[in-house]
Known about the structure:
Elements: E1 4-15, E2 18-29, E3 33-37, H1 44-51, E4 59-64, E5 67-68, H2 74-80, E6 82-84, H3 97-105, H4 113-118, H5 121-140, H6 156-168, E7 174-178, H7 186-201, E8 205-209, H8 213-219, E9 222-227, E10 230-235, H9 237-241, H10 244-251
Parallel strand pairs: 3-8, 3-9, 6-7, 7-8
Antiparallel strand pairs: 1-2, 1-4, 4-5, 9-10
Helix pairs in contact: 3-5, 3-6, 5-6
Amino acid sequence: MAEVLLQIAGIHKRFGGLHALNDVTLSINKGEIYGLIGPNGAGKTTLFNVLTGLYQPDEGQFTFAGRDLFRQKPYVVVDTGIARTFQNIRLFGNMTALENVMVGRHVRTKGGVFGAVFRDPATRREEAAIRERASQLLDYVGIAKHRDEAARNLSYGDQRRLEIARALATDPKLLALDEPAAGMNGKETDDLKKLMEKVRRDGVTILLIEHDVKLMMDLCDRIAVLDYGKKIAEGVPEAVKNDPRVIEAYLGASPE
């Protein structure tokens, strides 16, 4: 039987008179790639923001790896093992690729203010380990040759990979990706698919928002569909793409 990693039940989120999430319930199993699709404005990114602590839900339950994360702060969520990327790239443009990943790695460091000021041997060893791990992750996502380049000078596809490397630097159990293939060409999308499959093989569960329906159908183990803040379908890709409610609300026709 599959081990449930993330579970939410009866999640509601309102913005004034807008009911952005309406009684959303879903569970994500350890080791799977779980997709979230739906029309623009369906509530997908709002749900991501709830799951990563950026938004506080009004009602519901939220547990992750056996821990209650309902209305927890983002740093608590990250510490528990959820990392994310954003729909709009949020890198430190003037910092190098290596430095961007090192920033992500600092979530797992032990050195405090004293070590940062006095540079004791333990702190220096830890900084060296952070740099080494950041270099490994740049190689892992395929952009090691750009380690010393400013992030803003990287191609769009490489910036997306850099965001993933920075998220992986937090040692997540769950990697949440918000439209990582947006703006990519066919080869970049195929390379991204291979990277996500590698991440999953290496033990990280993935939650994915993406408008590329073909990518989602090829990649995901299960998919949930949101429409006007409500979950209207959930299941394996073949069942979801043939669900009449999904076709009417989102797909328009059954995709090839």
